[in-house]
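Folded chain entry
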Amino acid sequence: MEYLKQSLLHDGNCTRTIPLDLLVEIFLLLPTKSLIRFQSVSKLWFYAIRSKIFVDLILTRSKARPRLLLSLGGHGSKEGFIFSAPEHDNNDDEKSSTVMARYHMNNLEPGYFLDSGSVNGFFLGVVPGICVCNPINVYNPTTGQIVKLPEVRTNGRKMYARLGYDPVDDQYKVLCVVMARSKAKCWQPEHLVCTVSSSSQKQEWRKIENTTGGNYHSVYGETCIDGALYYGAGKSRIVKFNVRSEKIEFIKTPQESQISTTYHHSTLINYKGKLGGVDYHCTENSMTLWVLEDAEKQEWSSMTCDLPSTWKDLLGFYVRSKGVSHTGELMVFYPGVKPPKPFSVCYYDFNKMSIRKVEIQGMVDGDFRRIHGIGEQTDMSILYFTSHIENIRFL
């Protein structure tokens, strides 16, 4: 804080009537949406809000009260809407509660699709499908900033993009995996890395070597933990990408698990700072939590939980999960959103083996549909769902 104060006091063109320390304390009480607007009030306010120290303070505050990021789309339409909602805190006295969603942006950009989880408030948007050149954008829904990355020349091959963060050098990087469309063609995947920056001159795709020599044909899910990006690579294998060193290695998963293929009923998660995964056994109405206890020895622990009888009554049979809350509860949802029923998320506590339901209002109600010209009976669905924190940083 003292560094921020000294650096701003040297700006002789600024006049103020409120002491800087008090001004910063006031800023910390404001919602992030207001902070973005208040940058235009004066040069002093602009530099105070944009300073790294203040941005880090906001990030620390946001981590203490994280949100959910949701992408809502219409049936049979490429149009999408980005919302966020409070990640409801656990309260033993409340088995059902309600939160209100906040609308951020419409459809990212035409043709783009939310393709990876939120990393410190940023996420990726890609143009899906087989293209000669695949555009990739990095979005910050809090600030509205969009960073356009150089196009990736795939020449008809499949492309997967994932976002990672290096906390040591404070850098965001995108890993792009390009591979053959057919499993019959045993081409080794091509790995490209781009460091994210608002300056287009600094951005370029660099090819990195996979010294492990391992081939794989698909990319499933993702989670970024302490500078390492993880994603599934088919049966019994997870790729670990060190964001700082840009090295790739493989992690073996238990053969009886499905977490490395992350079908709709499985997911990779950050479980209390460790790599984890969840298998949901539909026919048995149970769930298995896998946790990588020793990364060097690649040893996993597991815990299987019988789900409460109310599970299917709350959500139905076809459910998905994209991670855990900051308190370690698994967040599960049914992707279909049919009026007039509100969208709901269930939180499952592995330790207490208890479940609670939270309704998220403001996404499919009459006012939102009327504003955006969506019919009252038009079915909507959750295209993407992930844990999220607000970040006022501009890349």
Notes: The first strand starts at residue 67 and ends at 74. Residues 52-64 form the longest helix (13 residues). The CA atoms of residues 188 and 215 lie 5 Å apart.
